[in-house]
Design brief:
With about 425 residues, the protein is α/β, with parallel strands linked by helices. The chain has two domains: about 5-205, 3-Layer(aba) Sandwich (Rossmann fold); about 220-430, NAD(P)-binding Rossmann-like Domain (Rossmann fold, 3-Layer(aba) Sandwich), CATH 3.40.50. The chain has helices spanning about 5-10, 25-30, 45-50, 60-70, 105-115, 135-145, 185-195, 205-240, 240-250, 275-285, 290-315, 345-355, 405-410, and strands at about 15, 35-40, 75, 85-90, 125, 155-160, 175-180, 200-205, 325-330, 355-360, 395, 415, 430. An eight-stranded mixed sheet has the order 3-2-1-4-5-6-7-8, sandwiched between helices. β7 (about 175-180), α7 and β8 form a beta-alpha-beta unit. α8 runs parallel beside α11 (about 290-315). The longest helix has about 30 residues, at about 205-240. It is elongated and about 75 Å long. The structure holds nicotinamide-adenine-dinucleotide.
Length: about 425
């Protein structure tokens, strides 16, 4: 029986390689439809945690993990179990190197770990965000070291993940899924697989088209965020409130999409993914100018915010040196516990460079997590907002729900608001 038939008859076992923000919800989605899932991860602490029915992702509760286990979820670090899977979905990180080039280490290592266990009739699908050509140029040659040939002995496909953690309006099942493969049978099998769990599967003609579609989506966001950030700087200089402008423009029922400015760009997708394309485009002697410009604008935003704070202090007859700031929000966006690539870290560094003593408050991040880039802040605790009045200024970096914003305004001496929390003019509020 071929793979597509096995999938359609409910006989296929799915392997999810990389049980993080993307892999875990994907595994849960397949399990909820009765598809057995073997979860492969190199991190034994995560696997142990899952086996105990415990979560390590804030918006995925323990009950979901317990339910997954009862539905046949088998998390393991034993990659030999890959041979039991009919389809393996790779959901590993794709960060940038220190030189801001694509870091393919995790994709390469995960393919290498599959080579000894690859067997005829299997399907390998990459879900990680990456530049066009990765599945064909990076994965294919590694997997073919097994002696098997892609799109002859095993199928290869690419299907980008569109997970939006903690978005109450969408979940894995309701987000349409683009799938691309370089062989019609591979595409048919991949579409059949995702159709078991996802309401709308969107087939495209190649892995490259699917890879490029994901990069387009994230570049679209990065460029539009840069645009409103740039307009914030322009309008502020003109004495025009950018938030009021955006609210007015957003009443246009067609041809406009609302994006909002902020202190920079964060998360581990939007600031990173477009540069995967920039890097690949160089190979073809073409420049991706919008991406570069958007990157420059977004990177400059924390500097601009600090400059606004500096000017506000100087108007009050003092400098920033020696001031005490309470930064509200470490997460890169509201209502998540994820501080990866958060502009808050940049604000923290820049303020410290000006001699400011910075504390932070984030209801979702009680302690600064360890990280490669910002290790020196690790372990610092979130400070209660009850103490806001003790600080010379409150800097709003993330507009989490559930914060008593009017109360904060009452108790703060000065507020630097990068998120448009306070709309009415107030001498205490500096919109930045
Ligand atoms: N998080 C999101 O919201 C989101 C949304 C869309 C796309 N993506 C993309 O999805 C991919 C995965 O992102 P994530 O947020 O789930 O990452 P993550 O860091 O949360 O999870 C990755 C997992 O892979 C595991 N891993 C690393 N190397 C491995 C290996 N060689 N073998 C097996 N497991 C390995 C890690 O231990 C970790 O559990 C990235 O390309 C990301 O850009 C993420």
């Amino acid at each position: 029986m071929d793979l597509k038939e096995r999938i359609e008859n409910g006989q296929a076992t799915v392997g999810v390689l990389g049980l993080g923000y993307v892999g875990l919800p994907l595994a849960a989605a397949f399990l909820s439809k009765g598809v057995p899932v073997i979860g492969l991860d190199t991190d034994s602490a995560k696997v142990d945690c899952l086996l105990r029915g415990k979560t390590y992702i804030k918006h995925i509760p323990d009950e979901t993990i317990a339910l997954c286990l009862s539905e046949g979820f088998q998390p393991t670090t034993d990659f030999a179990r890959a041979s039991e899977c009919d389809a393996i979905l790779i959901c590993v990180p794709t960060p940038l190197t220190i030189n801001r080039e694509p870091d393919m280490t995790y994709v390469v290592l995960s393919c290498e770990s599959l080579v000894p266990y690859l067997r005829r009739g299997q399907m390998i699908i990459l879900e990680s965000t990456t530049y066009p050509g990765t599945t064909d140029e990076v994965m294919r040659p590694i997997l073919e070291r097994s002696g098997l040939k892609a799109d002859v002995d095993f199928w290869l496909a690419y299907s980008p993940e569109r997970e939006d953690p903690n978005n109450p309006d969408f979940e894995t099942v309701t987000i349409p899924k683009v799938v691309g493969a370089d062989h019609p049978e591979a595409l048919a099998a991949a579409v059949a697989l995702y159709a078991r769990v996802i309401r709308r599967v969107v087939p495209v003609s190649s892995t490259r088209v699917a890879e490029a579609a994901k990069i387009l989506e994230n570049t679209f966001r990065a460029v539009n965020i840069a645009l409103v950030n740039e307009l914030k700087v322009v309008f502020t200089r003109m004495g025009i409130d950018v938030w009021e402008v955006i609210d007015a423009a957003a009443t246009k029922p067609f041809g406009f999409m609302r994006f909002t400015p902020g202190p920079g760009l964060g998360g581990h997708c939007i600031p990173i993914d477009p540069f995967y394309l920039t890097w690949k485009a160089r190979e073809y002697d073409v420049a991706s100018r919008f991406i570069e410009t958007a990157g420059e604008v977004n990177t400059s935003m924390p500097h601009w915010v600090v400059m606004q704070a500096m000017e506000a202090f100087s108007r009050r007859g003092r400098g920033l040196a020696g001031a005490r700031f309470l930064m509200v929000g470490l997460a890169y966006k509201k209502n998540v516990d994820d501080a990866r690539e958060s502009p808050s870290y940049k604000l923290w560094e820049l303020l410290e460079r000006e001699g400011v003593e910075v504390s932070y408050h984030d209801p979702f991040i009680p302690v600064v997590p360890p990280s490669r880039e910002h290790g020196r802040y690790a372990g610092r605790p979130s400070v209660s907002l009850d103490r806001a009045g003790e600080f010379d200024a409150v800097l709003i970096a993330t507009d989490h729900d559930g914060i008593d914003w009017p109360g904060l305004l009452d108790s703060a001496k000065l507020v630097i608001d990068t998120r448009g929390v306070y709309r009415k003019p107030n001498p205490k509020v500096i919109k930045a």
